[in-house]
Write a structure and sequence with these properties.
The structure is a single chain. This protein has five helices and twelve strands. The protein is an alpha+beta fold and 256 residues long. It folds into three domains: 20-50; 54-127, OB fold (Dihydrolipoamide Acetyltransferase, E2P), CATH 2.40.50.140; 131-245, Nucleic acid-binding proteins (OB fold (Dihydrolipoamide Acetyltransferase, E2P), Beta Barrel). It has a five-stranded antiparallel beta sheet with strand order 5-4-3-6-7, with no helix packed on it. The radius of gyration is 28 Å and the shape is elongated. The chain starts with 19 loop residues before the first strand and ends with a helix.
Length: 256
């Protein structure tokens, strides 16, 4: 018969519903009706309207319907889609329930509309101001800040300076003048550190940091090489410069 959505297993006796006659035989003694086909047609009509009015990049209001480890589902009226954890804000979100709650109204940007697969994706981050647009004013070269270690790699630690801006604390600046094999020998994730901004490149979204008042080893060129290689391995794009230049730089560092 096809019960209306939200009614579940409610007893239909005494309730008025709409049906379509699918089969009429024996002068009305044998009648087959369907309510589901009307629901399917209504869904198709709403889908056609949504396809005509919604577009990727559009900002709409919606309500959080459920929360998962990987994000939250948001109902914007005609459709429901996923708000991935990476799109909740500019800052790293460890626990979705710390940032959102079921029933909360949010303003999101539509990033994907796949009508064929009925998969829709939203972004809350795209509706917020880009923190790197004001990074030069907030983190000028030479300024000191308290930050928290967000990620640790072999070549350095990424320090969260707040507001969605991270800076790189290269391993050569962590040993107090001594070379370390890994940044993990000096810092750990979650540790608070005082850092100094050595250089800033908002266009590349890069900030080079050093421990405030600490001696450093290595060079800015080495730091830049490691950072470029890290980005290349993360994005799958080839590193800047030729293979010969990369090998030459690596051998040069090993001889020091």
């Amino acid at each position: 018969m096809g019960l209306p959505r939200g009614r579940g297993a409610e007893d239909p006796v005494g309730r008025h519903s709409s049906f379509r006659i699918m089969q009429f035989e024996e002068k009305g003694r044998n009648i087959v009706v369907s309510g589901r086909i009307l629901l399917e047609e209504e869904e198709a009509r709403k889908r056609e309207e949504s396809m005509a009015t919604l577009s990727e990049g559009m900002v709409v209001r919606g309500k959080v319907t459920s929360i998962r480890d990987f994000g939250a589902f948001v109902d914007i009226g005609p459709i429901e889609g996923l708000l991935p954890v990476s799109e909740i804000g500019w800052e790293r979100v460890e626990n979705v329930s710390d940032a959102l709650a079921v029933g909360q109204e949010v303003e999101v940007a539509i990033t994907r509309l796949d009508w064929a697969k009925k998969r829709f994706t939203f972004s809350l981050r795209n509706t917020l101001a880009d923190p790197w647009e004001t990074a030069a004013d907030r983190f000028p070269a030479g300024s000191r800040h308290m930050g928290k270690v967000a990620r640790v790699t072999a070549f350095g630690a990424f320090v969260s300076l707040g507001g969605g801006v991270d800076g790189l604390l290269h391993v050569s600046k962590l040993g107090g003048g001594k070379r370390l094999k890994s940044a993990g020998e000096a810092v750990r994730v979650g540790q608070s550190v005082e850092v100094k901004v050595d250089s800033l490149d908002p266009a590349q979204r890069r900030i080079a940091l050093s421990l405030a008042g600490a001696e450093t080893a290595g060079s800015g060129e080495e730091e830049a090489d490691d950072y470029r290689n890290y980005l290349s391995s993360s994005t799958g794009t080839p590193p800047l410069g030729s293979l010969g230049e990369a090998l030459k730089a690596k051998l040069s560092r090993e001889r020091k």
